[in-house]
Amino acid sequence: MPCNIIWLTRAQIDMDALYRFYSRKSIKAAVNIHNGIIDETDRLANNPYMAPIEPAITKAQKTYRSLVVSNGRFKIIYFVENETVYIARVWGCKQDDNKLKPL
């Protein structure tokens, strides 16, 4: 049975920011990136443990995983709890991973 996927507020903010950033250059590119990230995230419903544990957030109370998407440009940071995948962040891979620690 597939897991539910819930996008937490911070992840929704991340997606909105990505869309706004890319839409300044091209609406089509922004839509493709946005939809591509969602499509790749949907794979977690059937295999929630497919991504490795995120090494930048190992000291958190929850076990965060990161699924690299969009040709390696972004990470979907998430955790699994009670057959639900919670998307916590959408993180640009060029960013400093040390900023992920406060999750």
Could you explain the architecture of this structure?
This protein is α+β, with helices and mostly antiparallel strands and 103 residues long. The protein has a single domain (4-100), classed as RelE-like (YaeB-like fold), CATH 3.30.2310. Helices cover 30% and strands 25% of the residues. The protein has helices spanning 9-23, 27-42; strands at 4-7, 65-69, 74-81, 84-92. Strands 1-4-3-2 form a four-stranded mixed β-sheet. Strand 2 (65-69) and strand 3 form a beta hairpin. Helix 1 (9-23) packs antiparallel against helix 2.
User: Can you tell me the overall shape?
Assistant: globular
Query: Which regions have little confidence, pLDDT < 50, spanning 5+ residues?
Result: none
CATH architectural designation: 2-Layer Sandwich
Count up the domains: 1
Largest sheet descriptor:
4 strands, mixed
What is the CATH level 1 assignment? Alpha Beta
The residue-averaged pLDDT reads 90
Radius of gyration: 13 Å
Per DSSP, what share of the residues sits in E-state strands of 2 or more residues?
Answer: 25-35%
Helical proportion, percent range: 25-40%
Distance between the termini: 28 Å
Main sheet strand line-up: 1-4-3-2
Order of helices and strands: EHHEEE
The CATH topology is given as YaeB-like fold
The number of helical runs is 2
Number of strands: 4
List keywords for this structure.
single chain; 103 residues; alpha+beta; YaeB-like fold; 4-stranded mixed beta sheet
Produce the secondary structure layout.
Layout lengths: L3 E4 L1 H15 L3 H16 L22 E5 L4 E8 L2 E9 L11
Parallel strand pairs: 1-4
Antiparallel strand pairs: 2-3, 3-4
Helix pairs in contact: 1-2
